[in-house]
Amino acid sequence: MRKGLISEVVDFFSVGNRYSYDFQRAFAKFCKKDILYDKNFNNNLPDDQLKIFIDWFLFEYKLKMNNQRPIRFFYLTNYLSFSDEDRKNYKNLLRSKYSFWKICKIDFDKGMELEDMFGQKHIYVKEVLGTHGTAVGDIINNRISKIDDHYELLGNNDWVWAKEDYDHPVLCELLKYKKADPKLTRDLMTQFFRTSKLMEKGGSEKIQQQIINKDECICSLCHKQGVIGALKFDPLTDEPHLYCKKCASKFVNYNN
Ligand SMILES: [Zn+2]
């Protein structure tokens, strides 16, 4: 696949006024900002976040005007001007898949055999760097695309869960969904890091007092005993609070 292919698609949506509304809208959504606040799209996301944004925008976001994924819309509207080579490249990208992959086999400096955690399909990817510092059994999240005659990781996301992290709360939560989503993964990982940081400040003792069994608590809102539904931090004091599932359903969206 030739260099600059993806950035051409990004430019198509971000430069000029024709489609920039959607790009700004997606950016605001990704950064959880008001679209008016961020009207003059300024690219202040760190590089790793920007990569996730681009992946999510091109492959998962739906354009407001026609409900299509940006990469598909770009392909359909520019199809006639493509060279044969590019037509093949874009077709491959359209069929690419973002998922969680379990590493089944590693051939150093050559590639890896991966198993899709959503669907159990196996795929062999050509890879050099990633064959070092990972182990069989590790779970990675990434987009895989066919490139020329083989498959490759597109390197848009790089969290790794080792075997001993299989019970990681974020991984367990993400695997409950029907498919993987780069933005959701980013959102939950960020939330997890923020929570861990706040808990380090001394929140765990307070939480221990609220927990009854392993999965029940005395709810901070209704003060009754119930299954744990959510953990929230007081925005002023950073003090943690546990809520029962019934109370938590008022502010948590259980959409899986
Ligand atoms: Zn309650």
Q: Explain this structure to me?
A:
The protein has 256 residues and is α+β, with helices and mostly antiparallel strands. The chain has a five-stranded mixed β-barrel. The longest helix is centred in the C-terminal third of the chain and has 29 residues. It is globular, with a radius of gyration of 21 Å. The model has no long low-confidence stretch (mean pLDDT 88). Bound molecules: zinc ion (ZN). Zinc ion binds next to β9 and α8.
Search tags:
256 residues, alpha+beta, OB fold (Dihydrolipoamide Acetyltransferase, E2P), 3 domains, 8 helices, binds zinc ion
Number of strands: 9
User: Unreliable runs, pLDDT <50, ≥5 residues?
Assistant: none
Shape: globular
Main sheet specs: 5 strands, mixed, barrel
Structure ligands: zinc ion
Task: Summarize this entry quickly.
The protein is of the alpha+beta class and 256 residues long.
Helices, strands, pairings?
Blueprint: H1 5-14, H2 20-31, H3 47-59, H4 70-78, H5 84-94, E1 97-107, E2 111-116, E3 122-126, E4 139-147, E5 150-153, E6 160-161, H6 169-174, H7 182-210, E7 216-218, E8 225-233, E9 240-244, H8 245-248
Parallel strand pairs: 3-5
Antiparallel strand pairs: 1-2, 1-4, 2-3, 4-5, 4-6, 7-8, 8-9
The chain binds zinc ion (ZN).
